[in-house]
Amino acid sequence: MGKKKRRLKEKSRFLPAKPEEGGGGIDNGLPSSATGNLEEITKLFPCLFDQPSASLVPNIADSTELVDLSLKIGVLLSRGQASSGQ
Predict the structure, then answer these.
(1) What is the DSSP string of 20-82?
(2) Deepest of 26, 65, 76, 86, by most Cβ within 10 A of its Cβ?
(3) Above 70 in pLDDT, residue 67?
(4) Of 27, 26, 30, 74, which Cα lies nearest the Cα of 52?
């Protein structure tokens, strides 16, 4: 087996961590908005714009104390690969 195939096989065994079952829920918030260029943004992101925001909330019933934990989720919008290969 080649080095590349071996590496791919090792990667396929990786299981990412996941939250515990019943650990919380999703709180749907207000729809997204824009401070400017509303029509242009709507054209660029027709399926995403004006959708409700979502917050992950803990299951308070199972918690003895509420701890302020935050989860940061980022989205990278790219127009393609950089010329230098990044």
Answers:
(1) PTT-EEEEEEEEP--SS-HHHHHHH-TTTTTPEEEEEEE-GGG-SS-------------SS--
(2) 26
(3) no
(4) 30
Helix, strand or coil, per DSSP, at residue 16: coil
pTM of the model as a whole? 0.34
Tokens 């400017």 map to which residue?
Answer: 36
- Residue bearing the bigger pLDDT, 1 or 32: 32
Query: Which residue type does 83 have?
Result: S
Task: Please provide the size of the chain in residues.
Answer: 86
pLDDT at position 30: 86
d(CA 45, CA 82): 22
Contacts of 41 (CB under 8 A, 6+ apart): 34, 49
